[in-house]
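pinned: reference chain
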Amino acid sequence: MKNKISIVFSALMLLFMASCTKNFEEVNTDPNRVNKISPGTLLNPILYEVSSFNMRQANNFTFGLMQDMLPFPSTSGGVHRYDITETAGNSTWTTYYRWLTNVKEMYTASIEQKDPNYQAIAMTLNAMIYSNLTDCFGDIPMEEATKGDEGIFRPKFTTQQKVYEKIIADLDSANNLYVTTRPMIYGTEMLFANNVASWKRFTNSLQMRLLLRLSKRTEMGTLAKLKTIIDNPVKYPVFTSNDQGALVKLSGVTPFVSPWGRAIDFTTFRAAGLFFTDNLNDLNDPRRARWLTQARNKIGNANIGYKGIPSGYAGSDNQFNYIPSNKNIALVTAPLSIILMSYAEVEMIKAEVEFRNNNTAAAKAAYEKGVKASIEQWGAVMPTDYFTNTKAAYNGTLERIMLQKYYVLYFTDFQQWFEYRRTGFPVVPTADGMLNNKIMPVRYRYPPAVQSTNTENYNQVVQAMGGDNINIKVWWQK
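pinned: its structure tokens
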């Protein structure tokens, strides 16, 4: 009897549980919770976080290597002495892959919503971030990257050539995807305020940057493709004025605050590089006042003009009988703009393409437009006699173009370093305090975590690249 009662009770309980769980999901669903993101949900966070990181890396890494700025006093070590640690690339690796995962989510959402503009934007951001990653490291995970949701936690590496082939093809496809008459409806984004035509110009301008990066790989035919873009502005619109450039504007109002929690940290124990100041002085360049403070005499504290400290110097700090120029704290004080890509860079790309095609007049015109655009971008006034200075006038050499491009790329993530590695210009001086046989490092080492958690694929890529040190040239540099 007890067994019968127990069986009946159990059956009733199963029926009760079934009736409860039948509507459990419906009853316990939060009506205010969004189950799927829109294509625009992640756009501003991606733009803000990636651009802020880029700005910090320009300060922490590029400035030191490219002699824009250095720690001072600094009697030993430091990036400006080519003292690059094994973990120097850790934050670049982890930050970029974290936001690439978000870009992938944005791309997936745009496909689900059948929105070609957000799809093209996601492809553009994907190309921008992957290009920086591969230019910093060489071969990187791409085809199997950001696939933790598929159970791939140890991705294979993709060669740099394949990375570039993929992202350039994506940018070409993105250009064809944009529908400039279709509005962006998922909130207001902070880069171009939902102007689809502006995003299209950014996509094509970025493609110009990446095509030129491959200039030494003549088998890729990138100079011909660049000429096609330049000669077909209707099909391939690019930046044609400063107000069209890709500059992320930070108001200073939360959450869009300066990447520097304390602006004073930007200038504390710092000095401008002597190479940086000397060339600006030779050019009599009005950007000096925007970028720098004046140096001062130690006795009397009188201003003595713009003068930095030699990067990689050896010996005591007391060898310098002046207080060097520093960076202008206004550079990191909101409201401010973070440069993803400027109109001035586009003109300098055109100048090099025309130079390589022996079109002297066109190269000169683009060079002068690029210099003028950069000066005005930074809020300075373009002197009418700027190009009468023989140091500033176009002289038909790549070296002259690249010296001005060095300043055009100021505070633009790693771009000064990438372009130096591609061309060897500008020629930066060496000093006795520099390590690595006074040779400019050309890449980051892979992070130790990659070595320990993805060992098999790490060993394969190191063998393919010829090693894992700061002197191993990446594919486009060979």
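why pinned: Strands lie at 69-71, 246-250, 270-272, 296-297, 322-323, 336-341. Residues 43-260+333-477 form a domain with the Serine Threonine Protein Phosphatase 5, Tetratricopeptide repeat fold (CATH 1.25.40.390).
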